[in-house]
Design brief:
The protein has three helices and seven strands, in the order ααβββββββα. With 143 residues, it is of the alpha+beta class. It has one domain: predicted glycosyltransferase like domains (Thrombin, subunit H, Beta Barrel), CATH 2.40.10.
């Protein structure tokens, strides 16, 4: 095989690999989702670290009291498994105690569903945000 053919074949393989990786990492289409929820999903590609943890939480949503268990926590929100289904866009009030840290009582809204899990974006009170950030930072330094 000539050098030119090897070069072209290499370029083609690299191109196909790049397209495959792009396709795998793209944000899934969510045409059924309201526009504001789609914008939120797009913003979900965040830089702040997430800390994997299983913390029991209490939820108030649509005049219902629920419980749940976190899967991970970040400065902007939490991924959890609720005891009953929640809808995207539904306002919630979340209460939990950070392990070795303070109690957090914070309003938020469901920004997406992942199977039986829901992601809740916090509506911040400055003091609550600082408490969560301090705890996340401590957890990151322990890893």
């Amino acid at each position: 095989m000539s050098d030119a053919k090897v070069f072209l074949l290499t370029i083609a393989i690299v191109g196909v690999l790049m397209l495959y990786l792009y396709w795998q990492n793209r944000t899934p289409s969510a045409r059924w989702m309201p526009e504001d929820a789609r914008r939120q999903l797009h913003r979900e590609r965040r830089v702040p670290p997430r800390v994997k943890c299983a913390i029991p939480v209490s939820l108030e949503a649509s005049r219902r009291s629920l419980t749940g268990l976190t899967r991970d926590i970040a400065i902007g929100g939490v991924l959890l498994t609720p005891s009953a289904p929640l809808s995207v866009g539904e306002p919630v009030h979340v209460s939990f105690e950070l392990p070795g840290g303070p109690r957090i009582d914070i309003p938020g809204a469901v920004c997406r569903r992942q199977g039986k899990h829901v992601a809740i974006k916090f509506d911040f009170v400055t003091q609550q945000r600082a408490l969560i950030q301090q705890w996340v930072d401590q957890q990151q330094h322990q890893i």
